[in-house]
């Protein structure tokens, strides 16, 4: 009995090591599926597990940017910029989520995200969900009309002069605490051009 108690910590340590080694042994499709549920920074950190995982993050089908694990917004923006520059642009991406609780240093930083989405064919033709939560100005929302498969758009805390979305494929549009500067001439009409829209939750 005493011997069993003495050996138990060693067994627990070995079991823990086995669990840590399981991820690299899985098929790449399964690993990418798992990494799609974590933020991009965590996905990149898995590259240290072994050589096989070194570049898997560059092929993520779902990209989650979250500033929660960054010391400040400058580090966060720098990471996002480098991630987009180094990822494999031939990989199809279905979801892009950008969540920033900081006030962005670059007031138009979200435009960079949208530009990457609309300028990358492998994303433009496959993206289904785009979620943006950031206190930021956005000037290029209208270009999302190029995303022929986009069905869900979630916007929170953004400021834009866009008065309509004109995204025919869009089915679900979520707007939370956003500012739309329409001026005296234009009127805010989010459903204009969204001929397939099924839901439009508005929270101000």
From TrEMBL:
<dbReference type="InterPro" id="IPR001810">
    <property type="entry name" value="F-box_dom"/>
</dbReference>
<dbReference type="InterPro" id="IPR032675">
    <property type="entry name" value="LRR_dom_sf"/>
</dbReference>
<feature type="domain" description="F-box">
    <location>
        <begin position="20"/>
        <end position="73"/>
    </location>
</feature>
<dbReference type="InterPro" id="IPR053197">
    <property type="entry name" value="F-box_SCFL_complex_component"/>
</dbReference>
<dbReference type="Pfam" id="PF00646">
    <property type="entry name" value="F-box"/>
</dbReference>
<feature type="region of interest" description="Disordered">
    <location>
        <begin position="1"/>
        <end position="21"/>
    </location>
</feature>
<dbReference type="InterPro" id="IPR036047">
    <property type="entry name" value="F-box-like_dom_sf"/>
</dbReference>
<protein>
    <submittedName>
        <fullName>F-box protein At1g60400-like</fullName>
    </submittedName>
</protein>
């Amino acid at each position: 009995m005493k011997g069993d108690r003495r050996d138990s910590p060693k067994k627990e340590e070995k079991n823990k090591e086995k669990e840590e080694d399981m991820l690299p042994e899985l098929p790449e499709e399964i690993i990418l599926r798992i990494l799609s549920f974590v933020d991009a920074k965590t996905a990149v950190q898995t590259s240290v597990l072994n050589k096989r995982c070194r570049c898997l993050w560059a092929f993520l089908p779902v990209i989650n940017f979250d500033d929660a694990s960054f010391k400040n917004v400058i580090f966060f923006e720098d990471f996002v910029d480098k991630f987009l520059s180094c990822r494999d642009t031939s990989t199809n991406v279905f979801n892009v989520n950008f969540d920033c609780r900081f006030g962005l240093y670059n007031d138009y930083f979200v435009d960079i995200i949208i530009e990457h989405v609309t300028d990358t064919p492998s994303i433009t033709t496959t993206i289904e969900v785009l979620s943006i939560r950031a206190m930021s100005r956005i000037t290029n929302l209208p270009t999302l009309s190029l995303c022929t498969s986009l069905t869900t758009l979630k916007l929170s805390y953004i400021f834009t002069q866009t008065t309509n979305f004109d995204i025919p494929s869009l089915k679900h549009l979520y707007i939370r605490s956003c500012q739309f500067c329409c001026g005296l001439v234009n009127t805010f009409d989010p459903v204009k051009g969204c001929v397939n829209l099924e839901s439009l939750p508005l929270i101000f």
